[in-house]
Amino acid sequence: MLKLKNINSFYGEVQVLKDVSMEVNQGEIVTVIGANAAGKSTMISCISRTVTSFRGEIEFEESRIDSLRPDQVVERGLIQVPEGRLLFPKLTVRENLELGAFSKRSRGSRKDRLEYVYSILPKMKERANQMAGSLSGGEAQMCAIGRGLMADPKLLMFDEPSLGLAPIVVLEIMELIKNIRKEGTTILLVEQNVRQSLKLADRAYVIENGKILMEGNGKELLNSSEVKKAYLGI
Amino acid sequence: GGGSGNGGDSETADPFKVGAIYPLSGANALLGSQCLAAVKIAIDIVNANGGVQGRQVQLVEADAPDPTAATTEAGRLVDQQGVQVIFGSLASGNALAIAGVTEKSGVTLVESGGIADALTDSGFKNVFRILDKGGLRGAAGVSYTAEYVAPMLNIAPKDLKVAIIHEESSYGTSVADGAEKKIKELGLNLVAREHYNSTITDMSALVLKLKEAKPDVLFTVNYINDAILLVDTLKQYDAMPKVLMGCGAGTTDPNFAGTIGADSDGIFCTDMPTNLPLDVFADEAMKNVVSEFRERFRKEFPDMNNVSVAAEAAFAGSYTFLNNILPNAKTLDAEGIREAALTTKLDMTTLGFGWDLGDDGQNYAASANINQWQGGKVVTVYPDKLKNGEVINVPLPIAGQ
Amino acid sequence: MEQVLQVLISGILSGGIYALASVGLALIFGVVGLVNFAHGEYLMLAMYIAYWIYNFSGLDPYQSLIINLAVMAVIGYITFKVIMERVLDSDHSIQMLLTLALSMVLQNLALMFWKADYRNIRIDMTNDTMNLGFLTFNTPRVLAFLIAIGASVLLYLYLQKTFTGAAMRAISQNGKAAQLMGINIKRTYGLAFVIGTTLVGLAGLLISPIYPAYPTVGASFSTLAFIVVVLGGLSSVPGAIFGGLVIGVVESLAGYFAGPAYQQAAYFLLFILVLVFKPNGLFGRS
Amino acid sequence: MIKQLILKQNFVLWIIAVCSVIVPFVLPNRYFQDITIMTFLWAGLATSWNLYSGYCKRLSIGHAAYLGIGAYTSTLLYLNFGISPWIGMLAGGVISAIAALIIGGTTLRLKGTFFVLSTIAFAEILKVMTITSKEITAGALGLMIPYQPGFTNMIWQGKIPYALLTWIYMIIVLFISVRLEKSKLGYSLVALGENQEAAENLGVNSTRTMLVAFVMSAVLTSFGGTLFAQYVMFIEPTSVMSMGNSINFILLAIAGGMGTAFGPMIGSFILTPVSNLLRGYLVGISGLHGLILGLVLIAVLLYRPDGILPQLKLLFRYLFGKIAKPGKGE
Amino acid sequence: MILQVESVTKKFGGLSAVSEVSLEIEQGNVIGLIGPNGAGKTTLFNCINGTLPITDGKIIFDGVDITRKKSHEIAKLGIARSYQIVQPFGNMTTLQNAMVGGFCKTKIYKEAESIALRSLELVRLDHKKDLIAKHLNLGERKKLEIAKALSTQPKLLLLDEVMAGLTPSEVQEMVKIIHSINDSGVTLIIIEHIMEAIMSLSKRIVVLNFGKKIMEGTPEEVSSNQQVIEAYFGVEDGEAYA
Ligand SMILES: Nc1ncnc2c1ncn2[C@@H]1O[C@H](COP(=O)(O)OP(=O)(O)OP(=O)(O)O)[C@@H](O)[C@H]1O
Ligand SMILES: Nc1ncnc2c1ncn2[C@@H]1O[C@H](COP(=O)(O)OP(=O)(O)OP(=O)(O)O)[C@@H](O)[C@H]1O
Ligand SMILES: [Mg+2]
Ligand SMILES: [Mg+2]
Questions:
Q1: Residue E93 in contact with residue E33, Cβ under 8 Å?
Q2: D103 phi/psi in degrees, rounded to 5
Q3: Which of A148, B37, C50, C83 has CB atoms 3.0–4.6 Å from C208's, for a disulfide?
Q4: B11 Cβ contact list (under 8 Å, min separation 6)
């Protein structure tokens, strides 16, 4: 469904991604793990086209998307829940969520989607009229996730969704991701919470210094000694 | 400047360099560019007649939107271009700044725009002003009103209610100050004095305030668009006083009547003599010069149905100086020019009044005329010597209750 | 009393035009986050265009409204494409400065093309008045007021009721996030810029029968529009409408009670007072 | 040793600043000297402006007010009481400081655009006050300083003394800027400009820091105002306190590099002569020089948004880096 | 007792983000602060260091009542904090960032520089000292947050989720850093959702929920408390997360 071929990405003269190739199949949960600054967020941003300084091919549903504009990528149903939330601080939670359904493909079903998001993230309904800028760290993260769901995604990319969430909520989010997948949305998950995310994943990639280092199914990697040593500190 | 080219062949002698500094950009660019055009015409005419002391006059232009720029540009003309005479400069502030430069270098400034008293009251040796001081212009309107208008209105001068409204730049302020002083002196009844910024877009409040004061005569000093706005607003609120005595610039501008049309009939515009009928000039040569100037000016500014006052003054200043003063100078340096300027006396310049400088460089022959708009034309109604029509419409037919 | 009422009304009428001149600025600020110092220059351009059309075809500013607005939209679009689009990600100070430079260019272009002459449009209506009891209204000013308020309200509704409007409000807060929502940032920025310049153009057009065009006419409106917009709370359209009316009234009252010399000082003073007590403007959300 | 010094860009910039004093001596005539004086003066003024607004990223578009206070205070004291402008300059500084304290006290807590516009408002109010208090300031008529050369009067016949004076002024302000960059005040200011709350949490007293810098900036600007008045010898509210002047401070600072000690100077060294020469030599078509200047600025902003200084530094590194290399081989 | 928080309440409109919370810390101690999202942890930090004015209650630091003091005064007295959402001075270098803190207790440039360098070394960021802060990645920014706070030479350091977004092995590194900070005599309050970290760092843990303090105890006590498990840890595959 999503294919990356030999992506090389640069910030100025610094090369962040080196020949990254990977793929996500329809209906899968694919996890990407890696240390800080490995280039995970950069990779996702290349797909969303908010980072444009890269070479290589990106294919989504059999067609190239590596020269589209970010909004066109969204229009195809490829949605990112960004790292660091990136909410609209001076809009209310509700307005933030509604903007999640801005694209034409999801605009029509905005009302239903909002109900859906409220039902799985009840805290958001509670805070619907609060300015997003004054949410607590965790609440903001929930809002960002909710906003991503509003877009009716075909493929949803999460960049560190568990960041700053209480353990119980992390569990809920992982559960949620499973459920979303069940409803037919494909998932690409970037996570630092290595244990949780590998448990969830059908397949996983390990990225280090901008290179794909390992690839395999989630359980395998979780048990691999290299991963244990490098990322779990065991 | 070098020595005088005595007897030298006009073809081979060095040109005589003069400068012109006017605001050509910024808020005053309109009048500035007209003045510059007028100076150019004057130089052309002089050159066609053989130039100054056998030397062709060469013009160096400069743009000075504000006093700081005026200082720099005056420096360029004086030090870089080596001009001996500068014509300028429309705004009093610029004139004062230029004088600061020219005075130090022994260069002559011939001022035909700035009317602030300070210019000739500050002891400058080489600054000559052809126009009246601002105070005079304001005062002339007041004196005329007390002497002639009050009787026409059947009101004793001391009962005559008058008001002053002026734009707040140094121009408007100095004219208004002159008017106020005269009003106090003659014991007229000053019921209001207000000033405003000439970029004002709505005069309703001002006019409504004025309406309360119910003046019989309104003295006003404006630039062109505020003059139009003032008359429009006075009419809209039915607040036109019996007599509207404009004191220069805006109300004398050809576009004034052009824009407001028939309503201008009877509105006074005190100013230096302007657009005088040719028969005022006894001298045949001067008649030709004036008509040539007007013709060429109109060609350059086809939109205008009359030559603007500022341009007439700029022409008069530069032409008189080049044609009448400089030929009398023993040497074409500051000393020689000063002597010639102070000793030369003329009965008539192209402005209709004479040339008679005091030691301060002020032309005490300068006068202000009382003019009136009649049928879209400026008609001089006073002094009798220059008069070419009788007063009409006192009180104004459009005056409010 | 009658006088004061009359003064008040004349203030409100001017206020309507100030409001219209300002809503565009508020919109551009709200969306692009840009303080557009060249704002007034678009007003100037529209006045010149109105004058031109009037001169060549005899169409008065109301008749040429559509053409004029179309031209303004095109001019807005061109400036956006050629200049603003390139600095969307730059520092605010850079953007601000760029608009300053732009205003310099436009003013001087006008000076070169049209000379410094005042260009008046006198139509039959210019001095018409309408009377209501003891009150007098200048017809072009009333017309300008009605159209101005109408246009401002339309803009407000557009921003509130349409999704594009919502996008416009979101975009300035976080451009990257807006992209991730599927908002075409450049297009939205461009749209806001074009609407903004067209609206201030409309304001210019509406005052062209009562006020002459000259190269620096925009400058005084620019400052005024800033004051209005800040009073209203920067990016708030209703705030700008309200702010415009307030400034109009204050200016008028100050002119009447203190004298026209104090008109500007009065609204600047009001402005400072408001900021002292409500640092985010009258309508600003903190 | 010297090579190391050269590689420190500030060293080179200091050399440029200090050596510029030669310029008025070698120039052929007073017109060019006049431009040099304006260049020094504007460099000093823009650097003064930069002291607060540049480092703190809060643009004041009302600094012409302090220029006006400086110019008017010294001139009025001189004209009315015969007090030497040297003392008048200090008095102007004191009054500017008081004004800046009042203005700063009310506006410094404002954020972003609110602050920017409030500075305009204050400057405009001050201008209107100056115009309307005719009895004291002569209003719109302006004030003229009589030409009485002498050191105590701060008036000279030639241009050189003015050039030296404005150069010293520039160097002093520059020195203060450079010191500021390496001081607690400077660090606090820059941090405040980046993120006020975070700075406060690190112990930065934002109110005091901003006030101190704002007052410093205002006082130095007003000193420049006195020099301005003594040089032009004529002041009037509409031109001295115009927003155009305030904007010019900003233009120079940004063109050179805002928030850097030498940026505004570089900006003035380039733009002041350019704009004066353009005005002088493109006089034929009114508006043309303004148009060209505007276009040049747009081009700079579009293609070199950090200003000229960083480019210059790159150039130094390139030039002296090359020089330094063979040195190593020896 | 270096810090005494006495029945502090903070309301936003109708919402009590923190209500009647009291806690005390002894000099040199490390306390963990946990609780569900929106429980009021960050708000409590904001109250302690003066970023937000408190609605009710009293805070005493080192014998001084700091309830109504401004945040810069509090910083001078010796409380520093890091932000949950990092707030670097983006256009300054890493070292300059830290030096802003370094100037808290001195006016001398050299001193501020050496203080800043020392804190950068402590968080192992000294190799990036000349990098412009906006080019740092998230992990480095978190370290910079700590270094900035440390440079003010605090007696009490409030750390808000400095480990979020780090891989487990990076977490371990950070834990070591925090230990060494504590060893140098700084008292710490730590907010963290990563349990391994908070359990191994803190001597005592305070749990907030809906703005109220629901319990305080040793890590063992807290992790076995049923109420805390239900509200906070959750249960995974039938077993408690911790
Ligand atoms: N805008 C930028 N300019 C320059 N360098 C950047 C920029 N954004 C990221 N980088 C650098 O690119 C590298 C990869 O960053 P990226 O954010 O993709 O890493 P990551 O794997 O997502 O790390 P983390 O786990 O911290 O989120 C880092 O070294 C970072 O410093
Ligand atoms: N300015 C504000 N206005 C209204 N509500 C606010 C404001 N600031 C915070 N809140 C609310 O107060 C509550 C406490 O927020 P706080 O940031 O202290 O939570 P937290 O415990 O730090 O949570 P997290 O673990 O998610 O960071 C939240 O519900 C938040 O939405
Ligand atoms: Mg990342
Ligand atoms: Mg928090």
A1: no
A2: -65, -45
A3: C50
A4: none
Interface of chain D against chain B, CB under 8 Å?
29-32, 34-35, 38, 131, 134, 139-142, 144, 146-147, 157, 228, 231-236, 238-239, 242, 244, 276, 279-280, 283-284, 286-287, 289-290
Inform me whether the C-beta atom of residue C174 falls under 8 Å from chain B C-beta atoms.
no
Distance in angstroms (rounded) separating the CA atoms of residues B141 and B369: 8
H or E element that contains A55: strand A54-60
Tokens of C117: 């002459």
pLDDT at B1 exceeding the cut of 80: no
Q: Sorting pLDDT into bands at 50, 70 and 90, what band is D157?
A: confident
Domains, chain A: 1-77+154-234 (3.40.50.300), 86-153 (no CATH)
Strand A54-60, strand A63-64: pairing = antiparallel
Pair C17, C217: CB distance under 8 Å = no
Which positions 36-55 of E are in contact with A (Cβ < 8 Å)?
36-39, 41-43
Q: Do C126 and B232 touch (CB under 8 A)?
A: yes
Q: State whether residue E57 is helix, strand or coil.
A: strand
> How far is the C-alpha of A227 from the C-alpha of B268, rounded, in Å?
97
Rounded CA-CA distance B94/D104 in Å is 33
What is the distance between the alpha carbons of residues B190 and B173, in angstroms, rounded to a whole number? 16
The atom of ligand 1 lying closest to the CA of A45 is 18
Predicted confidence (pLDDT) at residue D120 exceeds the cutoff of 80: yes
Instruction: At A207, list the tokens.
Output: 């990225």
Q: Please tell me the distance in Å from D59's CA to the nearest CA on chain E.
A: 17
Closest CB to A88: pick one of C163, C174, C179: C174
φ, ψ for residue A168, nearest 5 deg: -65, -35
Helices (DSSP H) in C115-173: which residue ranges? 139-161, 163-171
Question: Which of the four pLDDT bands, split at 50, 70 and 90, describes residue D111?
Answer: confident
Burial D207-217 (b: 16+ CB within 10 A, else e): eebbbbbbbbb
Answer yes or no: are the C-beta atoms of B176 and B193 closer than 8 Å: yes
- pLDDT at D85 > cutoff 90: yes
Q: Confirm if C201 and C68 have CB atoms less than 8 A apart.
A: yes
Q: Do E241 and A167 touch (CB under 8 A)?
A: yes
User: Quick check: CB of A138 below 6 Å from ligand 2?
Assistant: yes
